[in-house]
Design a protein that fits this description.
Elements: H1 3-36, H2 51-83, H3 93-97, H4 103-111
Helix pairs in contact: 1-2
Length: about 110
Amino acid sequence: MSRRGAWTVFIFDEVVTYVILAAGSVSAEVVYLANKGDVAMTWSEACGSYGGFCKKATVSIGITFSVVGFYVILSHISSYILFSKYDAPSISFTAASSYPRNKQDQEMAAAFPA
């Protein structure tokens, strides 16, 4: 897979993960309102009348958050594939030999020897 393809897969994984997470959060709020109601808005609880709906919706929310967990794992895998295509940054010899440059850097180097 090319770098461009790896970036595409990585971005789509991230977008889908966040969309599913947002959908699960909204669903959880709806089921919470169905279970508890909202006194300030004069909404009564609906699960007393529609118990079957609330049970199915609760199971659906559990499945949604399980899917979010799987998509997080997929995002980690695609980010590993993407960033393994790049080399680690290298430190040039001149930059490394000039360290430590000032007194604060010298004190830090003395406190934490390599």
